[in-house]
Amino acid sequence: MEKEVFKLIADTLEVDEKKITLETDFLNDLDVESLDLVDLVTAFEDKYDVEIADKDVKNLHTVGDVIDYIKERQK
Q: Which of 16, 32, 50, 66 could cross-link with 73 by S-S, CB 3.0 to 4.6 Å?
């Protein structure tokens, strides 16, 4: 799942996939703006058939946070 998420982020944000790790911070490392974040959340929801609540988005700071969140919702 990690590689899929890394690729999805890279494709959506048009960044080098090699820059993405579990510790990559969306705001500090990838300079994600609010519209980019909406695109990312939509991409995650579509790809993994999960709903990411608006209140939860603000707590998803790193790529690892997103992966953990998705895994938890897919159980």
A: 50
Crossing angle of helices 34-48 and 63-73, in 10° steps, is 30
The pLDDT tens digits of the residues spanning 30-44 come to 999 888 999 999 999
Asked if 74 and 50 touch (Cβ cutoff 8 Å), the reply is yes
The whole model's pTM is what?
A: 0.88
2-73 has CATH 1.10.1200.10 classification: yes
Q: Where are the domains of the chain?
A: 2-73
Strand blocks (E) in the chain: none
